[in-house]
Amino acid sequence: MRKSIRAFTDELVPVALVQSLVLAANRAPSSKNTQPWKLILVQGNALENLRADYMAAFNSGKAPAFEYKYSLDPLPEAFKKRATDLGKAFLTHKGIAREDKEKRKEHDGENYRFFGAKQVFFLAMNKGEYGQGTFLDCGLFLQALITELHNKGLGCCPQYSVMAYPDLLHKHIPNSENLLFLLALPFGYPKADSVVNAFESEREPLDVFFRVVE
Description:
Elements: H1 15-25, E1 38-43, H2 44-60, H3 77-94, H4 101-112, E2 119-126, H5 132-151, E3 155-156, H6 166-172, E4 179-188, H7 206-209
Antiparallel strand pairs: 1-2, 2-4, 3-4
Helix pairs in contact: 1-5
């Protein structure tokens, strides 16, 4: 069963394995075989430099500058409740009290250090070459990639939050000026006996989202 992994070992996933799972994910369907996705792996010094700039931006209170809107604002009530319930459950799981502002900021900051992962995929597509369906195509590719990672015993955690600073992505990823970054995917070998990795989010029962018409 797939779940989000937020603590990784320092072991790098070998290049051959990375390439094989990316090639497998590239069999994802897309409208008219357009394959609009772009995938960039950032690791080594490039990732450490990016991580340092991200943490500096987060700690300074730099204002987010998202280049696309992920969700409705405000969220529909049912979505809002699920999001709120998740946040409360995760903080409780980590033993962070609601009033502990320092720990909560540290918790939030984990996002902007990519959970300490040694390798991060960035999913993107070309600016000006997409419609609503293109996001769906990229989502199909993303899910295929996540499934491949899971099947190889690896873990990951999709992140929209770090799209807050696209200027830093363009700064540290060469030849990316014409890319719209969609999401970050820190990945690697899950750290054993990690408290944070033991957390599992709740899911709605079948009758909430599924029905049969015959």
